[in-house]
Amino acid sequence: MIHALTDFFPSRTVSLYMARSFLINTFAFLFGLVLILQTLDLLSESGRILAYPGNGDAQVWKYVGLRVPQIIATFLPFSVLLGTIVTFTTMNQNSEIIALKASGLSAHQVLAPLMIAGLGVAILSFSFNDRIVSRSSATLAAWKKVEYGPLPIDRGDRSNVWVREGTHLIHAMQIKGRADAAQLAGITIYERDGAVLKSLVRAKTGRREGDGWRVEGAERFDVESGTLTKLGSVVVARGVRPDQFTLANVDAESLSFGALSEAIDDLRAAGRPTKALEGALWHKLSGPLSSVLMPLLAAVAAFGIARSGKLFVRAVMGMGLGFLYFVADNFALAMGNLGAYPPFLAAWAPFLLFAMIGEAVLLKSEE
């Protein structure tokens, strides 16, 4: 079994040579793209960062440290595509593909080392996205909310959450805990009659009691009369569920795979829609796996060139197939967010479709 598997690949020396060339080209393109795009992004954002009093070079470099992981996650698949095309084009120019084919290797055997290297890149990409990108995205989003000012200490609590209760609006400065153990702090209830504000109820803390929330130290300000009434300990916001506070805003990009899966389970248990988040969860797997697909789509640049002499045209075709995949991937995700596609289909349909297209092009080229 192991012997048959190793026979599928070229020799160890050739496989390592192809994988090394592929990885060097891929990460060289990634470095160049990150450098250029981060510079352009910093030119547009540095004014806002330095506009906050006291900010300087340290805050600019902090922004770079938080933004670079996002750029890497976005453009790593593009770099894999470009790295594959350059690797195949170089091997064709040096007649190395012809030599491999003449030795009896099929097109799939020639591609095998690059696809295994692409799988390694996919695993690295998933781990990087899950461990680093999600945290940097969450921190950067919170930093932007405070206009690049000092960040509050993050203890895993939710802050600045708004909830609607009929025509009333409820604002909580901070929420700790989950489900019935959730505790609110800094509560303001905007009691309205239609669009007209009638009164404000403010309380220091609140906790779940029955179908409502018992708040402590409450007082009501009547807008029309201008009077302030002490309420003490009262139950408010009957019918408002804990998940409306704790899961008011779920940002898939800012959560790891496990945390997003837990948030989806909580939302589903509360009877709230989860289709868009389920699509994002599946895409956390299908997105990194595009690194395995890119060598297959770029294979058109590897075969048939000796006969046709159209190296540049075939390289452009491979690049076009790769970019069409990214367009289809974004389109499917958008349709999934709108509810037009099921979550699994929105995340995996482009991958499976272009895998079949790439295989068809590869077989045609081999003929």
TrEMBL record:
Chief subcellular location: membrane
Bilayer topology term: Multi-pass membrane protein
Superkingdom, taxonomy of origin: Bacteria
Pfam family name, one: LptF_LptG
Stored InterPro entries: LptG, LptG/LptF_permease
Cellular component annotations (GO), alphabetically ordered: ATP-binding cassette (ABC) transporter complex
Subcellular location as annotated: Cell membrane
TM helices/strands, residue ranges: 21-40, 71-89, 110-128, 311-328, 340-363
Keywords: Cell membrane, Membrane, Transmembrane, Transmembrane helix
BP GO terms, sorted: lipopolysaccharide transport; transmembrane transport
PANTHER family: LIPOPOLYSACCHARIDE EXPORT SYSTEM PERMEASE PROTEIN LPTG (PTHR33529:SF2), SLR0882 PROTEIN-RELATED (PTHR33529)
Listed name of the protein: LPS export ABC transporter permease LptG
